[in-house]
Amino acid sequence: MPKFKMPPYHKQGIVVQMVPLIDVMLFTLILFMYISVFSQTEANLDISVPQSTSSSREMENPGEIVINVAKDGRIFVNDRQMGGEQLGETLKDAVALFPNQQVIIRADENSYHKFIVTVLDACARANIWNVSFATVHAEL
To answer: Are 31 and 7 in contact (CB under 8 A)?
Structure first.
């Protein structure tokens, strides 16, 4: 009766497969590149948000709209600059999709009050009452 012999390629020992390792590394690299693009969206605007000791550190809801108001009065929504009328139309479209739309106003601490009132008026015309202001938690 012949004995079973292992083929010579089984005698090499443990082999580390590089293809799955490269696949995982490329996927991780692509994931981090994709995430970093969205984190830079609001960081590119030169806005200094005021500090508050009572600000909450909650995560953003997926349906909220963040309106950025620069020091010179420029209004940005999703990196698009728009005026008061265009902002009102954008907010009305959002309310048509999500009736309980939440808006966060992220205004520069040195911006004039009239620019923020323009945004609040656009929210009121669009029938949005769930409005809050973004602040940075003050370290005591």
So the answer is: no
Rounded to two decimals, the pTM is 0.57
**Pairing label, strands 75-77, 65-69:** antiparallel
| pLDDT tens digits for range 79-120 | 889 988 899 999 998 888 888 889 999 998 888 889 999 999
CA dihedral of residues 66, 134, 124, 38 (deg, nearest 10): 0
Radius of gyration of the CA atoms of the chain, in A: 26
25-72 confidence digits (pLDDT tens): 999 999 988 877 766 555 566 666 667 666 555 544 457 889 999 999
Q: How far apart are CA 135 and CA 48, in angstroms?
A: 9
Rounded CA-CA distance 65/100 in Å is 11
Q: What domains are defined for the chain?
A: 51-137 (3.30.420.270)
